[in-house]
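Re: that chain you flagged

S.,

Sorry for the slow reply, it's been a week of failed gels. I finally had a moment to sit down with the sequence you sent. For the record, here it is as I used it:
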Amino acid sequence: MSRIAASARNAALVLAFAAGPAAPAMAASLTPVVAPSDAYASQFGTNNNCMVACMGEGQRLQTVYAGSLFGEEAFYLRGMAFRYRAVEYPANPQSYTRDLAITLSSTTKAVDGLSPTFAENVGTDAVLVLDGPVTFAPGGGTFAFDQVIMFDQDFLFDPTKGNLLVDLLHKDDRPYPVVYFYYDAINSTGDGMSRVVGLNSQDTAHPIGVDSVALVTKFFRIEGEALPVPEPASAPLLAASLALLAALPRRKP
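Prediction finished late last night. Pasting the structure tokens below so you have them in one place:
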């Protein structure tokens, strides 16, 4: 076994031992919430947009959703979905997969008030909910939200603390097909959604900038328990275990 593989194995064993048994979780059910409103569960928006599926490496998209769209009580989010707009754009015969990083946070920025500086929009509670491949494929239903993206990590959102910011970064440098997937969107101020787009992941969104376009989005909120996390009592044990691992003799290269 290589030194790198052994170190990785040891680290995994220490973390598993220190974490102890996970907190028990009840069976959770998912409740859909459509933004900007439930009315769009059975009607199309006013526009189409491909930014989620047609961006290149390093390009970044931040979309803000008004906290008022979600009620007043805090809840966990486990995923989201978009609706293929087959009415105006024919289906691409080939699916394709791209690597994305999606971060959720509570932002103090207002809808239609995002800064072109990405960092200024991100909340202090930011959580990387997905970092990996997403497959884009043709839609199969008239109003179906069939481009589903489920998260690897739940996000706790409290609508009383701000608006929901979905921060999407494309990490893949593979070329895209000639025909992209376009999704149902709305371009209107006052609908509770807006975005900022940049052709690179740096702090300034240029040259696309800030506008009111946003995809009609179905979110999946959890009714029940979130994904289990280690119990707080395991923290001292984790620290002691890591200290023990650091003290172990290492092979010289």
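What I noticed first: Helices lie at 3-19, 51-54, 234-247.

Talk soon,
D.
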